[in-house]
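Predicting holo structure, glutamine bound.
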Amino acid sequence: MKIKEFLEKDAKTRKEIVEKAFEEAEKIQEEYSPFITLNKFDGKIEEGKLKGIPVSFKDSICTKGIRTTAGSKILMNYVPPFDAHVVEKIKENGGKILGKTAMDEFGFGSFCINTFIIPKNAYDKERVSGGSSGGAATLTAKMSYPHIAIAESTGGSITTPASFNGVYGLTPTYGRVSRYGLIDYSNSLDKIGIMSKEIFGIALGLEIIAGKDPRDMTSANVPVASYSKIGKPNKKLKIGVIKNTEKYTRKEIFSEMMNKLQKNNDILEIHDVEMNTLDYALYSYYIIAMAEASTNLSKYCGLRYGLQKEIEGNYNEYFSKIRAEGFGDEAKRRIIIGTFVRMAGYKDKYYEKALKVRTLVINEFSEKFKDFDLLVLPSTPNIAPKFKEVERIEPIEAYKFDILTIPPNLAGLPHLTIPIGKLENMPIGMQAIANKFEEEKLISFGYIFEND
Ligand code: GLN
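Done. Tokens:
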């Protein structure tokens, strides 16, 4: 059922639909495990823009009274006493919390396997859902009743899983949405965004969660377009296809993306562009993200935050025991690398250099947006891999899978992944990147493909 159709129903009918949606979520959980925590419907339907639409939240977003683990054993028993800004907004607008979705521990991963509940791909249970917001994507794809997923991206955690599961995923401009109540991965990169089966759901979700919040100094006061006005662009869009992404992408995906664009050349003016910083963005990202992550994780030592036990031995022994037990392998790897790259004696070689590269990436994008409305590239280099394939790959290979999603994330630019078809019966996606705060262009671009 389409969201618009739901919104037009009377309160009694909407309540019945919401009940069914919660039941459907339970069935999906049995087969695909998209949730860490599944909520119960309280039977109340409020008014507001969402009028009772079930909304799921990635488990790194704090929900008052509902366990929030960020996919980590170290937070296994954490029940926040407060709501994140986005949760407040969804509640104020009559959204119902459907549950908390599975994710790679603290957002560390591209396949949603670095955690204790591993969701399956909506199209093939032997394949990964994608990470880190894997649960959100599988759930969005499987729900037949109205649903919006609130997820988060640091370096591709919305685009990758959304694309692997054939749904829309919007990562807004850095600062568009308040991060208050988000369990940090990397503060200068984290962005809360939305997944939906429909462009309408993306626009509706964005309008609700965007805006200035005094509790997040980086949140911006820039108006968003109203979801009620979404439609095709009112003038031709000038598109730059980032041509040097072709060499990283499976050829059928790249050619399908070009076909889809060409089919709409009445409304799109298509050009090829090269992105010189593409190859370096990945390395810059992983240094910055890990450096920030390692400082963020230092608070989980079993005193104020994280798993707690009987204190034995001295404090160092106690902290080590808690951290050894509570963190998974990928979190430990990132603490070690992140600490190393910002250590005195190494920071100018790694961390500071990574910041300089980040500036170059930002500058290159700014130059491009003088000429183009949107930049377009494939969402992922390949379709969702099988579990048995990713079990074998080395961490560095897994990081390289993010080559296409890192650049807009590193630059804090809004981007949207759009499902464009199938390859070997698995969904494939195309990504569009816009200049800062130009989500509206992305939404109208997505609308073209949803309706073509
Ligand atoms: N795969 C990337 C990483 O592991 C991105 C994850 C994310 O956006 N949270 O850092």
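Residues 122 and 142 are 6 Å apart (CA to CA).
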